[in-house]
Amino acid sequence: MKTDLKEINSYTRQLDVTVEWDSIENEYQAEFNKARLKYNIPGFRKGKVPEKIVKKTLGPAIEANFAENSLNDYYRKALKELEITPINQATINNLNFQEGLDLSFTAQFEVEPDIQLPKYQKKIKVRAIRYMAENEDIEQALSQYQEQNANIKTIETGAKSGHFIRGDFQILEADGQPKKGSKLENQYIRLGFGLFKDDKEKVFLGAKDGDEVTITIPGKEREVTYQVKVHRVEEQVLPELDDELAKTINENTNNLDDLRLIIKEQIQASLDKDHKDAVQKEIINHFVLNVKLDAPESMINRYLDHIKEDLENRKQPFNEDELKENYKSQAEWNIKWYLLKDKLLSIEGLDMTDAELDGKISEMISANKENEKQIKSFYRQADNRKRMFDEMLNDKLFEKLTEYASIKVVEQSTNELRKQQANK
């Protein structure tokens, strides 16, 4: 067998294979004899048709079948001989074979591209913002706790700003008639919030149970007019923000000051996780943007197929051309990092042992004794254990890469974050 491997691009290879007739003659003859034994025509007993007639009538079909069956074997042998592992199914071209002649074919496939990493130790520069929790964050959290513990009071005297209205919303056609099949029953809105504030809440002010209100709301493409049948007007009665409420919210607190401190610590922990994620993303960008690497087309297509499958499972409509256009750059970025991460793990000699996994699971059980049975059951499942393996290995890699990074941390108030969000 002769092989010739050509590099089409960084991830595509073309393999030309030629198998000499002398080495396949016996295999072909066995295939021919097998077909001849089954062949039957009038005037001859089954299996006794002269070889000349069999070759004339069945020869091309036997040759084609032999070539199809043989190319898989010799393709695998060629890959093993050359120590190549394709990442997709090969495209076979130029398959040629006739009795007495060599078998030849061309296979084109993709491989993981060879990655040449530059020296990155002490070369990674990262700038990341760390947001610091402010009193406003704490007050917002306390307000949410108040709402979660609020009582609801039915209002008989008429709706005011801040009240809740429960009712049926019927879309009206341009001529004022109800649009068939467009009635939304038992919907809740809050006056003074979202779409129902300023001028849009005025039509509801003073509304009572049984009233009908017509309102026009801006839509994505055009305005939508609703006829609202009011069923109930309600007011949210908030509890006092005091030590008793603090104990209700968190049994480990003695007073409101304790709760404020716990809330601030929780918010800061969440912000610090976001900061850590931002640092990791900057490190990833350092490699993705500075290493010359092409994402294989087959891997991009598989990534896009997964997105398509997810959208279909969630019954979300999509256009295939728009999906490819919108997600291709994301696919390329993620695939490049996937390939780079494997290379980095190999260079750094990082891995995860079963003992480390079991140790992590034991820590989780120690912190949640009441859920020990569920935790053990969850991590007996191979997929869940594999997910933990990947997460822990990923953390180990970033610990190492962070040692090589020069990180400039810029601290900012969450008030700055709120301003940015308000300007979007």
Proportion of residues in helical segments: 40-55%
What is the radius of gyration?
Answer: 35 Å
- Element order, helices and strands? EEHHEEEHEEEHEEHHHHHHHEH
Q: Which regions contain 5 or more consecutive residues with pLDDT less than 50? A: none
Instruction: Based on Cα principal axes, name the global outline.
Output: elongated
Mean pLDDT: 93
Q: Helix count, per DSSP?
A: 12
Outline of this structure?
By secondary structure, the protein is an alpha+beta fold. It is built from twelve helices and eleven strands.
Descriptive account of the structure:
The structure is a single chain. With 424 residues, the chain is an alpha+beta fold. Helices cover 50% and strands 22% of the residues. It has helices at 21-38, 51-82, 135-148, 199-202, 243-249, 256-290, 297-313, 320-348, 354-367, 372-380, 382-404, 414-423, and strands at residues 2-7, 12-19, 91-96, 103-110, 124-132, 151-154, 164-172, 178-190, 212-217, 224-237, 405-413. A hairpin with a 5-residue loop joins strand 7 and strand 8 (178-190). Helix 3 packs across helix 6 (256-290) and helix 7 (297-313) packs across helix 8. The longest helix has 35 residues, at 256-290.
